[in-house]
Amino acid sequence: MWGRAGGDRLGAAAGPVAGESLSERSPRERPWLSAMAVPIAVLDCDLLLYGRGHRTLDRFKLEDVTDEYLVSTYGFPRQFICYLVDLLGATLSRPTQRSRAISPETQILAALGFYTSGSFQTRMGDAIGISQASMSRCVANVTEALVERASQFIHFPKDEATVQTLKEGFYGLAGMPGVLGVVDCTHVAIKAPNAEDLSYVNRKGLHSLNCLMVCDSRGVLLSAETHWPGSLADCTVLEQAALTSQFETELHKDGWLLGDSSFLLRTWLMTPLHIPETPAEYRYNMAHSATHNVIERTFRTIRSRFRCLDGSKGTLQYSPEKSSHIILACCVLHNISLQHGLDVWCAPAAGHMEQSEEEYEQMESVDSEACRVRQELLLTHFS
User: Fold this and answer.
1) What is the rounded average pLDDT of the residues 20-28?
2) How do strand 256-258 and strand 269-270 relate by DSSP bridges?
3) In whole angstroms, what is the distance from residue 176 CA to residue 264 CA?
4) The DDE Tnp4 domain covers which part of the protein (predicted)?
5) Residue 48 pLDDT grade (very low, low, confident, very high; cuts 50, 70, 90)
6) What CA–CA distance (Å, rounded) separates 117 from 112?
7) Is 177 buried (19+), middle (13-18) or exposed (0-12) by CB count in 10 A?
8) How far from 56 is each of 43, 48, 75, 128, 309, CA to CA, in Å?
């Protein structure tokens, strides 16, 4: 142990003399032992997570702090944090061979502190009684636990009643019928994987992940694919995405998504008209823009709430795979927060979670059936 080796280095004036056991000295005669107890607890990170008997090493307790402190430090109120403890507690308590454990409660606070601040702050680790290295390990554990539950919280509705409610929510925004979701891409900056790999370099010369997301009229995410390399154009991401397969094989029934002009028009994806000419075409484009704006507001809300994604503290310092998981974990937390009524739209935040790289690039469709569907929509609802 580091403590025993450190004791040997303190010399005869502080440590035991030859042949003398530690137990033979009174506490008053060996004050250096108690003085070293705290640094051992803080610095020996290998003893911190999980462990036989599930003994915890925490100085922080939820009941000891105010709601205002939790919101200002970790970004979420007590009820939300308690829900996460119930949701993830069993996963975060899985035993290992370690002799000590950090409680699920503390692991969740450490992760929320990182997601909402964007940095492993020493003061945050001090507040909950763990080292910065242990905070990093807690973030990894909580991230994987949330990713495992992504399909539980991010999905399209399947029953007809919920689908109808989804369409009505969008129709109430600007009179656009049949909308099942609005889709767009956003870039999240990451560190360069290596000097040779240019697949993550986007059109602005930055390393990023291009994340394809769909949301409903309230900003609840219905789909989130966070792993695409930043060099891929939005239309290419959509072509290769699971979302396309999902709509072409399962969900393309009496409805469509709305996408901007960086995507190709499809029978299940309505895009704006490049050059509107008639009053009906102008009305269609205006309704399309007002409805599609929901996804842009959702992106602003996510990066405002989860500062690890907005670039204000720098890029995500992880591999593309781990960065993708962190983004997805934040998406899961976003949906859970909306379920708990934390749904106030946020003002735009400064940062580098970029909007679509192709937002000014107009894509023209060669799908005649898709053009027919859009023209029928124009004649039926906007003429």
Assistant:
1) 48
2) parallel
3) 19
4) 183-335
5) very low
6) 8
7) middle
8) 15, 8, 24, 12, 31
Higher confidence at residue 150 or residue 93?
150
Q: With bands split at pLDDT 50, 70 and 90, how would you rate the model's confidence at 355?
A: very low
Side-chain-side CA neighbours of residue 311 (13 Å):
18
Name 225's bridge partners. 212
Asked whether 209 and 227 are in contact (CB, 8 A), the reply is: yes
Q: How many CB atoms lie within 10 A of CB 69?
A: 12
| Virtual torsion, Cα 264, 269, 271, 273, nearest 10 deg | 90
Mean pLDDT of 13-24: 46
Q: Each residue of 200-217: pLDDT tens digit?
A: 999 999 999 999 999 999
Q: Where are the alpha helices (DSSP H) in the chain?
A: 2-9, 31-43, 67-74, 78-92, 104-117, 122-128, 132-148, 150-153, 160-174, 234-240, 242-246, 279-305, 320-339, 368-381
DSSP labels, 14-77: TSPPTT--GGGS-GGG-HHHHHHHHHHHHH-GGGTSS-GGG-B-----GGGS-HHHHHHHHSS-
Query: Which tokens hold the place of 347?
Result: 């003002």
Ordered by start, the domain boundaries in the chain are 62-91+102-152, 155-344+364-382
CB of 206 within 8 A of CB of 230?
yes
**Which pTM value belongs to this model?**
0.80
pLDDT band at 96 (very low <50, low <70, confident <90, very high): low
Pairing of strands 354-355, 179-189: antiparallel
The region, left, alpha or beta by phi > 0 then psi within -120 to 50, assigned to residue 362 is beta
Q: Are 374 and 270 in contact (CB under 8 A)?
A: yes
Whether 230 and 202 have beta carbons less than 8 Å apart is answered as yes
pLDDT tens readout for residues 211-257: 999 999 999 999 999 999 999 999 999 999 999 999 988 766 689 99
